[in-house]
Structures are given as structure tokens and as C-alpha cells.
Design brief:
Keywords: WD repeat. Helix content is about 0%, strand content about 50%. It has one domain: YVTN repeat-like/Quinoprotein amine dehydrogenase (Methylamine Dehydrogenase, Chain H). The protein has strands spanning about 1-5, 10, 20-25, 30-35, 40-45, 50-55, 70, 75-85, 90-95, 100-105, 115-120, 125-130, 135-140, 145-150, 155-160, 165-170, 180-185. The chain is mainly beta. Strand 13 and strand 14 (about 145-150) form a beta hairpin.
Length: about 180
């Protein structure tokens, strides 16, 4: 799966030189993040205008439409994570009201799908990591802060400054004992 500054999203197969599917043509907002869900049957694309779009991967048309597309953040959606069986999605980004990390239910109508919005990360959240064993979200922000959220309790557990500049990467070890952060500096 590839995404570009011009907003195009294309899927390829290792053994074929031509794209299998063009999910999104050029001319849209820049792609900020893309993932497949754990089952591999859906892919999600976040963009620079605050939207998250989700497609079924097994498409027979050359230019399929997303089965879900909604604006998660008023400025940009920088990252997201599929939670559980991909019916629950967490997003990070920048919103005018500082609700920069959100939980969404994809099975309800778009007018009611926001489950919880966390007010955190002045100037926006840049990255997001889900820890399924502990049911935690870890987010990094533009000012170098890390926030850890309990998604069952829907509350922030910890906030600390890890870097002097924007957090650009988060990685979680498979046993969920440690996480690592990387920053713009």
C-alpha cells in the first residue's frame, strides 16, 4: 500500500509491476498514515485535512469508494490505530478544541461515532501506538510530550516530556514491557 503527498493511494502485489487498485486518485490531501487492520481485509488512510477513510481490501473495481470516511480532527489526522477487530479506531491529530486523541466506533452512524475525545497535546498529537495487552494508547505530541491513556477507563494515566521537539515515532516491544520514542531533534 502506498500513499503520497498528492493524496493518491495505491495497492500493489509483490509479483506484479502494475497496481492492483487505486483507492484514491491524486488531488486529495496529503496522506499522513496508512495501515492494514490485523485481519488484512481493510486498510485505513489518514490525511492532512483531518480525515480518516477505510476501504475493504478485496475490491474488484479499479477505483473503489471507501466504506467509511469522516473528519476526525479539524486540522490534520496524523496517525491512527485499529483497535480490537477494527470496529474501534483511535486517531491522533490536531483539532481547534485540543481534542487531539480520539476513540471512534465504526459500527454506528457518523453523527454518533465519536466515543471519547481526550484533551491533550497542545499544538497536536503526531503519533499513536496501541498496546492491546494492557488496553493502553500511547501518543506523542508536537512539543515532545508523551501521554498514556487507559481506553477502558477513558482517562489519561501519565503525561511526561520525553523530548524537546516533536515526537515523530513510537515503537512498542511485543511483550509490551517497553516503548521507544523518536523525535525531530
Amino acid at each position: 500500500l502506498t500513499g503520497a503527498q498528492d493524496g493518491s493511494v495505491r495497492m500493489f502485489e509483490w509479483t506484479r509491476p502494475q497496481q492492483l487498485v487505486c483507492f484514491q486518485q491524486a488531488g486529495n490531501a496529503r496522506v499522513t498514515r496508512m495501515y492494514f487492520n490485523a485481519q488484512g481485509n481493510k486498510c485505513g488512510v489518514a490525511d492532512g485535512e483531518g480525515f480518516l477513510s477505510i476501504w475493504q481490501v478485496n475490491q474488484t473495481t479499479s477505483n473503489p469508494k471507501p466504506y467509511l470516511s469522516w473528519q476526525c480532527h479539524s486540522k490534520t489526522t496524523s496517525d491512527f490505530a485499529f483497535i480490537t477487530s477494527s470496529s474501534l479506531v483511535a486517531t491522533s491529530g490536531q483539532s481547534n478544541d485540543n481534542r487531539n486523541v480520539c476513540l471512534w466506533d465504526t459500527l454506528v452512524s457518523s453523527s454518533n461515532n465519536l466515543i471519547h475525545a481526550f484533551t491533550c497535546h497542545d499544538h497536536g498529537a503526531t503519533v499513536l501506538q496501541y498496546a492491546p495487552k494492557h488496553q493502553l494508547l500511547i501518543s506523542g505530541g508536537r512539543k515532545g510530550y508523551i501521554c498514556i491513556f487507559d481506553i477502558r477507563q477513558r482517562q489519561i494515566l501519565f503525561t511526561f516530556q520525553a523530548h524537546e521537539s516533536a515526537v515523530k515515532a513510537l515503537a512498542l516491544d511485543p511483550s509490551e514491557d517497553y516503548f521507544v520514542t523518536g523525535s525531530a531533534e
